């Protein structure tokens, strides 16, 4: 059965035993994935086969999991496509039929998003604050948000629309709606609750391979972008004519337009297609994590004031330093009066902004975010498919076509890697440990590892930290509508329906 399914034919890889009367591992896994995986690890060691969701998987655990991420012949993109058919979905919007894991998409994020993070931060913060103040607001009574995921999707989509397409386009309500709808479309493609998981990939391939339902989103983006791009071209030509430097907009759309050839992009429609792929990979993942950070704040209320106090201390310190810098410029005569700082980098009105350097200094927020991601990311996940035969260092062989899945608990709940209290949520676990939430290694794999490690993690973590900072600065009490759903909220997987609503009480 193992070899027929295309899974590893290496006979030295054991297959986990089934419970009496069961024909697959689904029920045992669904009851408690971590208990099931711990049993298998104890019985069989770090590599074993399981039969789950009608497929054989070779489970790889610590210390061998780094070999999966480092191998060029094991692909996460193909592993996800195998379950969901996601490649047909993202390929349908670009001329080159790009997968989300295509090197061009990776390079766009790496070269244009990450280096400009500090410059994007004020926009991200402003968008998030506006959205929270408008939708949740301040009131004496606690405010109820029935579907927190919907709320955070809107918040993240709004911030990302500006980063990807610039202010002018992001202010178009249809564009924002497109960002949100795309996220819902992707959630449907990857939905882990799909009743017949066997047919999910097949249906998605048929749907997105034959017709192209994402085309309507491309049209909205192209229609909104066309006049803006024309105006930018006009301004650039005018600046050139007058011998002036053109003030190039910072968004990713401009970056792609400026590097058409490098990324193999054909026209504006294709630019919008590439932006859509980036929207798909970024908004869904980040809004999901943002939502669950708020459930963790509700479950561990003792964190809220610690996080808020840190924020106040960091901002006080920054205010002090900026005032010292202003004074020294006044004393040296470089600047003649306080009023002259208006509109400059040292404008006193920006002293208490949640700037990129301020967010970077919030080490407790960083540790809280990393601990939430660690604690949540357990069970088995990050499926891979072997494109070629791979020899593991323990002598076992993964054959071409085999399906691999990572034993996440063997990293995130591993006492040797995390400490004896690996099973407990300790929000300040990483403070002073030089283990930032962006730092991938075999003890922290929510963003994968190796050459294909998520290139968007710097933006993602920046956004997640900002969400925490914005929320604790406005609310001092976070409560679950149904506290009995706490465990479900802490361990929900990406794409699962939110377990309960949230109440927010203003400071
Ligand atoms: C909390 C949010 C996020 C999580 C948990 C996440 C997680 C992941 C994971 C697990 C991978 C696979 C890594 C591997 O194969 O080793 C990945 C790949 C990727 N992610 Fe993210 N991601 C997030 C946010 C983002 C954002 C914001 C962007 C874009 C701005 C992004 C862009 C990508 C791309 C392009 C890839 C494919 C990389 C490749 O195959 O070379 N992600 N992400």
Features:
507 residues, alpha+beta, Cytochrome p450, 3-stranded antiparallel β-sheet, globular, binds protoporphyrin IX containing FE, heme, iron ion binding
Distance between the termini: 60 Å
Determine the number of helices (DSSP H or I, runs of at least 4 residues): 21
Strand content range = 5-15%
The level 1 CATH classification of the domain at 92-376 and 451-506 is Mainly Alpha
How is the largest sheet built, in terms of strand order? 1-2-8-5-3
Shape: globular
Number of strands: 10
The chain-level structural class is: alpha+beta
**How can the largest sheet be summarized?**
5 strands, mixed
CATH architecture of the domain at 92-376 and 451-506: Orthogonal Bundle
Enter the CATH topology name of the domain at 92-376 and 451-506.
Cytochrome p450
The residue fraction in helices comes out at 40-55%
Report the uncertain regions.
none
Instruction: Give the rounded overall mean pLDDT.
Output: 91
Distinct bound molecules: protoporphyrin IX containing FE
From the alpha carbons, calculate the radius of gyration and give it in angstroms: 24 Å
């Amino acid at each position: 059965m193992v070899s027929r399914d295309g899974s590893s034919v290496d006979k030295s890889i054991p297959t986990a035993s089934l419970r009496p009367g069961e024909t697959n591992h689904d029920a045992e896994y669904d009851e408690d994935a971590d208990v099931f995986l711990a049993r298998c690890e104890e019985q069989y060691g770090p590599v074993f086969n399981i039969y789950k969701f009608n497929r054989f998987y070779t489970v790889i655990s610590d210390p061998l999991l780094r070999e999966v991420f480092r191998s060029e012949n094991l692909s996460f993109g193909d592993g996800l496509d195998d379950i969901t058919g996601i490649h047909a979905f993202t390929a349908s919007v670009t001329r080159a039929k790009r997968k989300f894991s295509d090197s061009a998409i990776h390079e766009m994020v790496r070269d244009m998003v990450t280096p400009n993070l500090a410059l994007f931060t004020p926009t991200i913060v402003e968008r998030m604050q506006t959205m929270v103040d408008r939708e949740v607001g301040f009131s004496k009574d606690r405010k109820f948000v029935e579907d927190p995921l919907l709320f955070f999707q809107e918040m993240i989509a709004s911030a990302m629309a500006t980063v990807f397409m610039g202010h002018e386009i992001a202010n178009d309500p249809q564009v924002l709606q497109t960002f949100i709808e795309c996220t819902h479309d992707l959630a449907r493609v990857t939905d882990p609750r799909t009743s017949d998981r066997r047919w999910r990939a097949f249906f998605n391939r048929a749907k997105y391979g034959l017709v192209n339902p994402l085309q309507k989103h491309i049209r909205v983006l192209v229609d909104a972008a066309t006049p803006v791009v024309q105006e930018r071209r006009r301004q650039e030509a005018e600046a050139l004519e007058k011998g002036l430097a053109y003030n190039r907009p910072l968004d990713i759309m401009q970056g792609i337009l400026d590097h058409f050839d490098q990324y193999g992009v054909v026209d504006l429609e294709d630019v919008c297609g590439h932006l859509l792929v980036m929207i798909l990979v970024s908004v869904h993942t980040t809004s999901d994590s943002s939502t669950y950070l708020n459930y963790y704040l509700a479950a561990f209320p003792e964190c809220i004031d610690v996080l808020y106090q840190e924020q106040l201390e960091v901002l006080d310190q920054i205010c002090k330093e900026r005032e010292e810098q202003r004074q020294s410029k006044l004393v040296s005569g470089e600047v003649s009066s306080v009023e002259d700082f208006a509109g400059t980098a040292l404008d006193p009105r920006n002293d208490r902004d949640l700037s990129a350097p301020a967010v970077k200094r919030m080490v407790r927020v960083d540790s809280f975010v990393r601990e939430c991601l660690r604690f949540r990311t357990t069970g088995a996940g990050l499926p891979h498919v072997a494109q070629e035969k791979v020899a593991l260092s323990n002598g076992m062989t993964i054959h071409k076509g085999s399906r691999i899945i990572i034993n996440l608990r063997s990293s995130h709940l591993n006492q040797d890697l995390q400490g004896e209290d690996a099973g407990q949520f300790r929000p300040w676990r990483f403070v002073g440990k030089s283990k930032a939430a962006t730092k991938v290694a075999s003890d922290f794999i929510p963003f994968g590892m190796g050459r294909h490690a998520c290139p968007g993690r710097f933006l993602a973590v920046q956004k997640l930290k900002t969400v925490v900072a914005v929320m604790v600065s406005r609310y001092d009490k976070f409560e679950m509508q149904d506290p009995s759903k706490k465990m479900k909220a802490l361990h929900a997987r990406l794409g699962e329906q939110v377990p309960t609503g949230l109440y927010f009480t203003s400071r």
